[in-house]
Each structure stands twice: as C-alpha cells, then as structure tokens.
Amino acid sequence: MIPTQKEVRIAMIEPRPTVVIFDVNETLSDQSSLRDRLVEVGAPAELLPEWFSGILRDGMALTAAGGYADFADLARDGLRALLPARAGLTPSDGLIDQVVAGFHRLDVHPDVAEGVRLLHGSGIRLITMTNGSTTITEALLDRAGLREYFELHLDVRGPRRWKPAPAAYGYALARAGVAAGDALLVAVHPWDVDGALRAGLRGAWIRRGQAATAYPKAMVAPTITADDLVELGAMFT
C-alpha cells in the first residue's frame, strides 16, 4: 500500500522533537530593508549579500582559529573595508552606525508568524540561537507579536563559538535542557543545518524563495525540507 503524503511526513519527524531551535538571521528576519540603509549612505543596494556573507565568513573563521568577535563588530569591520572599495565612501563611525542600526529595525518574513503559531500550537517548545544578538532577536519578535511563543533566546556570546561549531549547538541544548536527538534546528542556511546534524541534532532546511536551489551534496542531507515555515509547521499538526 502506497503511504499517503501525511504518513510520509510523520515518518520524517518521528520521534517528534521536543524543542525547535530557530536560526534568526534570514531564517526569521527579512534583511531586505538593509538595502535601503546602504542606499541612504550612498552605497549600492547590491552590496548587501557581499557584506552579510563577509560577516559570517569572518565570524566562522575566528571560531575555527580559536578566536571570537561579536556580530556587530564584524559588521562594522566589513563596512569599513567595503564602502571605500565598492562605493568610494569614507567610512566614518556615524555612517557605519547608520547602516548597522538597520539590524535593529528588521521585520520577519511573511510566513514566520503562521509557522511559529503552528509549531507552538503542536506543543513543541521554541527557542532561538543566533550568530547575532538576543537583543535584536527579542526586538524582532516583539514587533511581530511573536515573542510570547518562545521560551528562550540565545546567541553565540554564550559559548563564544559561532555556528556551525559543535559548541554552539551544545550550548543551546544545555540551556534548553534537552538531548541532541530531541532537538530540531531550523534554518535557511545549509551550513547551519549541516552543522546541527553533525552535532547530533536533526535539521530542517527552509528553502523560502529558493525552490529551484539544490541542497549541497557535500553536506549532510537535512532531516526535513520545507518551502517555508508554514509548510514546516503543518507537518506537526
């Protein structure tokens, strides 16, 4: 007998996780408004992907080398390097702070609210773990009216190791009081999903807007793949 789509979904998520750990940057937050910040100071909007990728690169590189720096400090360093080279701008502290302040004004993606409510309604505990900061996470979810659905907000300042280092996931598990096998990491970044899987968690890859994008073959395959958080949440209802 051919299993139904619902039966296939149930098989993928059994046993049900007791905790869902959300990545924040780009998984929950929509960073498109940062393009406007760049334009306001005279930089091209297209600089955003390079800038953000550079922040992640440098944070992960420092972790690999045994060092550490906060997300905001690396964001400022990135602009100091990119603005003169890509926009011919003198990167004063005021100009840099104007752009970086945009991280405090982001909104969630359109699918986040319903997806979060579906997961919370299924009885699963929800927490966040970000390479950014808990302050930004809390403000983001406050604006969206979603903070009440989460019991804990964490960032890499605790373990002083950026994801995807195993210590970052271990820190989240310890703070949540759960074993790795009872947790599901949710992220739009394959490297984050891969890191969680290598640390013993399960991983859900959210393809939002990337339906034609293939998950990297060099990385551990996700436990679950969903087009957005609404589809993910529906798997548990």
From TrEMBL:
GO MF assignments: (S)-2-haloacid dehalogenase activity
Alphabetically ordered keywords of this record: Hydrolase, Plasmid
Top EC class of this enzyme: hydrolase
Source organism superkingdom: Bacteria
Enzyme Commission number(s) of this protein: 3.8.1.2
PANTHER family cross-referenced by the UniProt entry: HALOACID DEHALOGENASE, TYPE II (AFU_ORTHOLOGUE AFUA_2G07750)-RELATED, HYDROLASE, HALOACID DELAHOGENASE-RELATED
Protein name: (S)-2-haloacid dehalogenase 4A
Taxonomic lineage from the root: Bacteria, Bacillati, Actinomycetota, Actinomycetes, Mycobacteriales
